[in-house]
Amino acid sequence: MAERASLGLKIAAGAGLLFMHLPLLLIFVYAFTTEEKSYQWPPPGFTLKWFAVTWNRADVWEALSLSLRVAAISTVVALVLGTLCAAAVSRSRFFGRETVSLLVILPIALPGIITGIALRSAFNLAEIPFSFWTIVLGHATFCIVVVYNNAVARFRRMSGHLIEASMDLGADAFQTFRHVILPNIATALLAGGMLAFALSFDEVIVTTFTAGQQQTLPIWMLEEQVRPRQRPVTNVVAMVVVLVTFLPILAAYYLTRGTESVAGQGK
């Protein structure tokens, strides 16, 4: 039987959790405050009116729509390119394979401001105007990494004999992918896609350099904090962002639980 944690360890763990999550709880509290212009503690009162105000703010809906569209398309691009990269690196042997793997994961290791400056310089050099698609391209650089990491780990645990057996039984490449490969990597792709969506939805730094005059929801929130009109509205929107990013991450966690083994592993 595992040893029980000591009291000191429990206190330390609890303090760490409070340090990480207490600010989130404060955001939720301030979304209901009656105070409009400052963060007064304790709140002088509580109201639901800011939810109605937020619902009727056209700028919030525009920013939310842009963020959802960018995240959705960036995730699709990442699923396609990340899966192809993972398949090439894990199922093939060629000169420079590890270098290619390093280059694929490099964008998420670099500081976001470096990636943003590099992308902005490239777009300016190519005379590409800032638009919806420049934001998508910027987000795809790090979303691909998330999908790649999930897919390559699953590919490496999947036995190559399954693919060989499928081919021996007369299946073509598409049938092998559909009936053998995809069922084995589906949960990894779904988890990677959800994480990529969450990362794209709340990204700020790279978006700042690639959006031009457009505002995604995180950029809108940042500007509202600098030049606030109605502070509680920002907190209501922050609640939405927490939920939109938390739910995919939670789903990805449960989808990847118990998937340490795949069909044909070790055979």
From TrEMBL:
<keyword id="KW-1133">Transmembrane helix</keyword>
<feature type="transmembrane region" description="Helical">
    <location>
        <begin position="181"/>
        <end position="201"/>
    </location>
</feature>
<dbReference type="InterPro" id="IPR051789">
    <property type="entry name" value="Bact_Polyamine_Transport"/>
</dbReference>
<dbReference type="InterPro" id="IPR035906">
    <property type="entry name" value="MetI-like_sf"/>
</dbReference>
<feature type="transmembrane region" description="Helical">
    <location>
        <begin position="66"/>
        <end position="88"/>
    </location>
</feature>
<feature type="transmembrane region" description="Helical">
    <location>
        <begin position="12"/>
        <end position="32"/>
    </location>
</feature>
<feature type="transmembrane region" description="Helical">
    <location>
        <begin position="100"/>
        <end position="118"/>
    </location>
</feature>
<keyword id="KW-0472">Membrane</keyword>
<comment type="similarity">
    <text>Belongs to the binding-protein-dependent transport system permease family. CysTW subfamily.</text>
</comment>
<feature type="transmembrane region" description="Helical">
    <location>
        <begin position="130"/>
        <end position="148"/>
    </location>
</feature>
<keyword id="KW-1003">Cell membrane</keyword>
<dbReference type="InterPro" id="IPR000515">
    <property type="entry name" value="MetI-like"/>
</dbReference>
<dbReference type="Pfam" id="PF00528">
    <property type="entry name" value="BPD_transp_1"/>
</dbReference>
<feature type="domain" description="ABC transmembrane type-1">
    <location>
        <begin position="64"/>
        <end position="252"/>
    </location>
</feature>
<keyword id="KW-0812">Transmembrane</keyword>
<feature type="transmembrane region" description="Helical">
    <location>
        <begin position="236"/>
        <end position="255"/>
    </location>
</feature>
<protein>
    <submittedName>
        <fullName>ABC transporter permease</fullName>
    </submittedName>
</protein>
<keyword id="KW-0813">Transport</keyword>
